[in-house]
Specification:
- The chain is of the alpha+beta class.
- It folds into 5 domains: about 220 residues, no CATH class; about 120 residues, no CATH class; about 130 residues, no CATH class; about 90 residues; about 210 residues, Phosphatase 2c, domain 1, CATH 3.60.40.10.
- About 60% of the residues lie in helices and about 10% in strands.
- Strand 3 and strand 4 form a beta hairpin.
């Protein structure tokens, strides 16, 4: 017979023996309890030897560690409670904890006896009372509830728990009644030993009242599994406050442990349960202090509890400063010094624990869990929320960058340049000099002195906005009799010039109208709706397709429009021979896309997999530009950039005209479009906003826009042209020309842009040019020949050769820009 069989036989024989001696007396029951403890220890040793050969040894070790750790915590708590007092002589906490425990009564008994020994006075009586309480708890479970001590022992022994007495009752009411016995016994002894004084009677009465109340509260924490959860919160509060009372008078390294615990408990409860409960706990913990110091903890609970949402540091600092203020108010700086070290140390520990997520708001934590669970149940909600967050973040970034850039541009346009100011000074002086008798002496014979005077006034106007007589050189004042009028006149002329510029400049930092903003919000909402759309037909068809290959699941959901995600719920892993690569290949081929490797998750007993659509094409690009002969400013701007969510954009902006204004306009257009498109905004909305902004400037300097938008996920290209030169697409031996007859950006109120859409393939070559390559939209046989003959292995060299050939070919000089885009395969890790 194996060891388990032998143990069962021993238990049966033991049960028969007890049945014969049933209810033979309390002493017999105590002997049986001791025998059960010895048997429990042997059983634990046997189980350790048995589990050491089990393949699940790691789980068993973890379980045993938990079994040992829990009674250790109860023993430590009982030790603190047994040596602590609520008031002088009133020591109900140890009795209450011992009677409240549902399990591990032996551990609580050991801790309580050790605590009584450390306290010293009345040890024998206290130890006897603790032992009596433990015996009553055990015997009540054996006799009162089950009617048979043997049955209780058999049930308890089958659980194989260390430090647990058999048959301990789970009835909270019974525990409260039992707690009255040691409380009355201890109170009676204390009254007799003290000579029936009023103080001893008060101690006895307080112990008899506090012990059952605390037992009821402690049962919410230590009462076991069958205690109602509604008692748990009150029980936790009672235990925390009791720890503060138990540590009263304990000092380590000149630090008052009770103050440390009281302040820490207040901050902890205010963080996890709110400022109101934190204040209540603070008031109760403050009862350990002198009357004037009672509100110290509560003040910290109110201040910190109301500011946790702001930041942990601010909340803790506010709580500490509030407590310090009360200390100074109630007891002066002496009282402040008594509390300051403990509070500073406690604050330094609490802040990193909150930031690390160790101490969290229980309400936020539970709501977060339920929110995550709901999103996991409906993946469409999750994807819509992610898409909305990304889109809004991108929009905010766009407007932030554009606001700063356009602000600087507006300031530059409002202020005249130093050369304009100097010319203004010269024109103003000329009005006075033409009728002056000393004109020849002043302006003709000594032009350098006159030039210096003009420059001095121009610098003053540029820096201060006005000029005074002190800005005119002294030697010039000696010659000129009108210098005071001249200084006043140039200041007035400068002010009028700035005012005129302000009236003509309509940019005013951001030139967006409400219709454009409405389009932005509408575009975000549309993308959010698309991202969470469920394709039911495709979902059912894909589930059947996967099942045909041996991948059986409870449900399949295909979510999204442009970029789809596949969620597979309830995978039947048993008997499934297909792997992750097989699953990816099946989904990609059936959905006509490229999907990521599956990501597996386990939700309880359910295995789920998710796959996300990825880019099926890649791009490479190069650009080359040449300025107009004799010009230092290039009116053409070429840009190519990656956008959010696997999109690629390339554009050429050509400012109409030449010089500084043309370059400034084309640069502004390129920057605006790049900023908007990079952050996820749609091309039509961005172009409409750009058109409104260019028109609002009030300067006749429009620009052409040639914009290519490549969707790398869907393999689709879109061209937006506003007055732009034609674009060429080479596919194999075929060459296509894309052109439109539209007005440049900024000429008419309504955006005039033509969109052309087509699907691209790997190997396609797209050549974008400015009007300097093909002026007046003329036929260019030489350009067709070059595009068809080039192998485009070096895109930069190809773009350069086309631009240089255009410079030689065209008689009319203009800015020349060539941008070449080649459609390639995606990166190797994205290829199936």
């Amino acid at each position: 017979m194996n060891s388990n069989g032998a143990k069962k036989q021993d238990v049966k024989e033991f049960a028969k023996t007890v049945g014969v001696e049933k209810r033979s007396g309390v002493l017999s029951g105590i002997r049986n309890v001791a025998a059960a403890l010895i048997s429990r220890t042997k059983s634990f040793a046997d189980s350790i030897r048995e589990y050491s050969t089990d393949e699940n040894i790691s789980d068993n070790v973890q379980s045993r560690v938990s079994v040992i750790l829990r009674p250790a915590i109860i023993a430590l708590t009982a030790f603190l409670f047994a040596k602590g007092e609520i008031a002088p002589g009133v020591r109900p906490m140890g009795f209450a904890l011992l009677c409240a425990c549902g399990d591990y009564i032996a551990a609580a008994l050991c801790g309580a006896v050790l605590g009584a020994a450390i306290r010293g006075d009345g040890f024998a009586v206290s130890a006897a009372a603790y032992a009596a309480a433990a015996a009553l708890r055990a015997l009540a479970g054996g006799y009162v509830l089950s009617g048979s001590l043997a049955e209780g022992m058999i049930r308890a022994q089958s659980k194989k728990r260390l430090f647990t007495l058999p048959g301990a009752s789970n009835s909270v009411n019974l525990r409260v009644i039992i707690s009255c016995v040691p409380a009355v016994a201890y109170g009676a002894y204390h009254t007799i030993a003290s000579g029936y004084t009023p103080a001893s009677l008060a101690v006895a009465l307080s112990t008899c009242i506090a012990c059952p109340v605390l037992t009821f509260l402690y049962a919410g924490v230590f009462g076991g599994k069958n205690v109602e959860p509604r008692y748990a919160e009150a029980g936790i509060g009672a235990v925390l406050v009791s720890i503060v009372f138990a540590l009263r008078g304990d000092v380590i390294l000149n630090l008052n442990l009770s103050v440390l615990a009281g302040y820490a408990v207040t901050l902890f409860v205010s963080r996890t349960r709110g400022w109101l409960k934190g204040t209540l706990i603070g008031l109760l913990a403050g009862l350990t202090l002198e009357a004037a110091s009672v509100p110290v903890y509560a003040a910290a609970g109110v201040a910190a509890g109301l500011l946790w949402w702001l930041s942990p540091f601010v909340a803790v600092a506010a709580g500490m400063m509030t407590s310090f203020s009360w200390c100074v108010y109630a007891g002066g700086y002496t009282m402040l010094l008594n509390f300051m070290p403990e509070m500073i140390i406690c604050s330094a520990v609490i802040v990193p624990l909150v930031k690390a997520g160790v101490i969290v708001d229980s309400k936020k934590s539970s709501s977060k869990v339920s929110s995550i669970s709901g999103k996991a149940f409906d993946p469409g909600i999750l994807l819509r929320d992610e898409e909305t967050s990304d889109a809004l973040e991108g929009t905010v970034q766009s407007f932030s960058i554009l606001s700063e850039t356009l602000g600087r541009l507006s300031e530059r346009l409002k202020s005249p340049s130093i050369y304009d100011i100097k010319q203004l000074c010269s024109d103003t002086c000329e009005k006075y000099c033409r009728r002056c008798k000393s004109k020849d002496v002043c302006r003709v014979r000594d032009p350098e002195a006159a030039e210096e005077a003009l420059c001095s006034m121009a610098v003053a106007l540029s820096e201060r906005g006005y000029a005074t007589v002190s800005d005119i050189p002294d030697y010039f004042k000696r010659r000129c009799v009108e210098f005071e009028k001249i200084a006043e006149a140039v200041s007035t002329a400068y002010a009028e010039s700035v005012e005129a510029r302000l009236k003509s400049d309509k940019t005013e930092i951001i030139a967006f109208d409400y219709s454009a903003m409405r389009d932005v919000v509408h575009d975000i909402a549309a993308r959010r709706e698309e991202a969470g759309t469920l394709d039911e037909a495709l979902s059912h068809a894909l589930r059947d397709e996967l099942k045909a290959y041996g991948i059986v699941s409870e449900r399949v959901a295909v979510i999204g429009g442009r970029r789809r995600s596949v969620f597979i719920y309830g995978l039947h892993m048993r008997g499934m021979t297909a792997g992750g690569d097989d699953m990816r290949k099946i989904v990609s081929e059936f959905c006509h896309g490229v999907f990521s490797p599956p990501e597996f998750t386990i939700d309880g007993s359910e295995v789920c997999a998710s796959l996300t659509e990825m880019a099926q094409i890649g791009v490479s690009h190069a650009a080359f530009t040449l300025e107009k002969a004799g010009s230092r400013a290039n009116g053409d701007i070429a840009a190519a950039f990656d956008c959010r969510d696997d999109k690629f954009c390339a554009l050429i902006s050509d400012g109409m005209g030449s010089g500084r204004e043309a370059a400034l306009t084309s640069g502004t257009c390129a920057l605006f479009l790049e900023t908007m498109l990079k952050n996820g905004n749609s091309a039509p909305v961005a172009l409409k906003m750009l058109n409104a902004m260019i028109r609002a400037r009030g300067i006749e300097c429009p620009a052409t826009i040639d914009l290519l938008e490549l969707d790398l996920v869907r393999g689709c290209a879109k061209f937006y042209k506003s007055g732009a030169a034609p674009t060429f697409v080479r596919r194999g031996d075929d060459l296509y020309r894309i052109k439109s007859k539209t007005a440049p950006i900024g000429i008419i109120k309504t955006l005039d842009a033509e969109r052309t859409t087509f699907n691209v393939k790997v190997g396609d070559i797209i050549v974008m040019i400015s009007d300097g390559v093909a002026p007046d939209d003329n036929e260019c046989p030489w350009l067709y020949t070059m595009i068809c003959a080039d192998d485009f292995t070096d895109l930069a060299a190809s773009a350069r050769s086309i631009a240089e050939r255009a410079r030689r070919q065209n008689t009319k000089s203009d800015d020349i820009t060539v941008l070449v885009v080649k459609v390639t395969s995606p990166s190797s890790e994205e290829t199936i």
